[in-house]
Amino acid sequence: MESEVGQIAEAVEEDLEEVTPGRAMRVAAALKAKGGDEFAKPGSIIEIKFVKGESLSLTASRLLALMILTAGGDAWEDRPHRIRKADIRRGHKGNERITDMLQELHRTLFAVDDKSWRGKKATLLFSLISRSREETEEEGGEAGWIEWEFTPDARKLIQASETYAVLNRQAVLGFRSNYALKLYELGALRLHRRQATWRGDMQALRAALGIPPDVYTDFAQLRRKVLEKAKSEIDQLAHFRVEWREIRQGRTVTELEFRFEPKGAPEVIETVDELDRHSAGRQARREGTVENVSVGQGAIPAPRKAVAGRKPPEAGFPRGSLRYGDDEAEFRSIGRQYGGGWDVDMIADGFRGHMGERLEKLRGAKLIAAWKGFCEGWVNRRGRPQ
């Protein structure tokens, strides 16, 4: 009898050990505790397939990203999550769009490869949201909340994900093309791999970006309406650049290969500046034209509030070693996380030489962004140490 009880206890312990969050959720928890605009989205959710003919709209994709940001490292747990409507609207008047976005998330079906009860290959269809509550009573201004729960199938995917993409909240909200947002997520997911590329045929590309089968059937149109627009937005708002190569059979494009490269420090600073600007005039700045914006016209989003957590250092970049001291801790942590195993002091020396006199003027968030971008670029150029 005791041996049977022992076997049952061991089985229960094994089950408990299996129900632990993967790397994606551990990173998500760490980023949320730190505070700031960066958050982790599980790779399993980024690479999830839409049921043929379906895809999320840009607004629904943004809402899903904000839900994952808000849930943080708890997204895999069987519990409700809550977010203010004000954090979703971002300057829009009225709540009707939030209702539409929630309903779209409820009814959109996703598909993953699975096994049937007989062990045969099967396709599992499910939605990401099981239930939601939206406060409908007006309390004046932006006081309302929504509450939601992820479905068991979604939580299982989120919990098991070992891959993740570090996304920027301001960038996610800044994209005006749904295809650009999808490609941004794919790029962020692959940026730190040995081969920061994505390759697929036209069917795989449509599935990855959520392009309906009957839209942009001519590749020249798809290049102009989807790829070129997505690239221009990503190059402006993301912490990396994207290029693609067209692989042909005869005159027909059969495959595409995308390559994602971290931006250099000066480009990262420009990106941080752009994300801090109002979206009005962003397209004109991207295209190099001039657009005058009247401050008194249109809805202006509220100023960004300070985020709880560690504030970016206001002092300049350290002149000595990054290995010791509290003042160097933030830079040391970033160097170790994004430096690919290279010596942090070696990267720091390269950073000082690359930035020159410009480094003396950098402070706060811009300095952190430039240092992180340089670390990513260092690994991209040199690979990982042997």
Automatic annotation (TrEMBL):
Residues 55-186 form the Initiator Rep protein WH1 domain. Gene3D superfamilies: Winged helix-like DNA-binding domain superfamily/Winged helix DNA-binding domain. Pfam families: Rep3_C, Rep3_N. InterPro entries: Initiator_Rep_WH1 (IPR000525), WH-like_DNA-bd_sf (IPR036388), WH_DNA-bd_sf (IPR036390). Coiled coil: none annotated. Belongs to the initiator RepB protein family. This is Replication initiation protein. It comes from Novosphingobium cyanobacteriorum.
